[in-house]
Design the sequence.
């Protein structure tokens, strides 16, 4: 089994790095720091800019308009157009006061899928998985607890979803035309760590960040078989995406919150033998 080693990227450390994306249209990489409430964009020349949302943001997904993002925040969905932040759809009618958005991805049709999770002292873990289409929000999977990584198969018939609290990645039948999902089955179970964010490569293999596991696992989306490992010198690996002209490098986020390791909270990169896919872009 192939084992890769990730290398630190830059000197920055982040409280809770998440939601990495690479947009081939702009050659920009992006990620969020959930706790700091900031979106970071690394331009093609290496310059990093940031947008401060003043609240926790779970994910920022490149939109159909190059250079802009649809952002899943604590109280709503927001658009960042590269300069300004504007509210796209309030979620106060959906979320309890102790819920916030967590991971999010656009599906092949451009619908935004986003999960909620509970936060607060004495609050029991809870959450749901939602789908947004032109401001119409539908509950897709109740009782998810901590909604995390999402991916869709190349033939647009399968949806993959990680619920961290269950230590599992589930597979569903997916209908591209309607955006509906059905027939949930557990595909992967991870005991020594927690499945977090993930991406999918051009051969439909899943690359799953393992929180508390110091690694990314490459898994078959057909059988769940472990195919390769990426070792990351940080305790909590949160997510990954493919980037570069050939989409054959991983861009990896980690958490540094309440940790003191040399690389906890750093960004990482890793050249791999496989090729990834460009992201699906969110409708606004």
Sequence:
């Amino acid at each position: 089994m192939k084992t890769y080693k990730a290398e630190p990227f830059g000197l920055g450390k982040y409280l809770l790095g998440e939601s990495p994306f690479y947009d081939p249209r702009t050659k920009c990489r992006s990620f969020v720091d959930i706790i700091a409430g900031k979106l970071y964009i690394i331009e093609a020349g290496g310059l990093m800019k940031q947008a401060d949302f003043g609240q926790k943001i779970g994910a920022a997904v490149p939109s159909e308009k190059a250079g802009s993002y649809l952002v899943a925040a604590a109280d709503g969905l927001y658009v960042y157009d590269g300069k300004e932040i504007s509210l796209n759809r309030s979620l106060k009618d959906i979320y309890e006061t102790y819920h916030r958005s967590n991971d999010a991805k656009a599906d092949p049709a451009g619908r935004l899928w986003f999960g909620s999770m509970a936060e607060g002292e004495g609050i029991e873990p809870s959450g749901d998985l939602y789908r947004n289409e032109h401001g119409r929000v539908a509950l897709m999977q109740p009782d998810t607890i901590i909604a995390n990584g999402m991916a869709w198969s190349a033939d647009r018939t399968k949806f993959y979803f990680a619920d961290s609290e269950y230590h599992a990645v589930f597979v569903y039948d997916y209908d591209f035309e309607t955006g509906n999902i059905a027939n949930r089955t557990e595909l992967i179970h991870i005991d020594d760590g927690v499945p977090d964010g993930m991406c999918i490569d051009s051969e439909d293999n899943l690359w799953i960040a393992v929180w508390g596991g110091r690694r990314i696992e490459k898994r078959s989306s057909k059988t769940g078989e472990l195919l390769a490992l990426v070792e990351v010198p940080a305790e909590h690996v949160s997510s990954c995406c493919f980037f570069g002209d050939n989409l054959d490098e991983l861009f990896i986020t980690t958490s540094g919150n309440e940790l003191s390791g040399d690389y906890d909270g750093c960004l990482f990169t890793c050249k791999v033998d496989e090729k990834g896919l460009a992201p699906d872009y969110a409708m606004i």
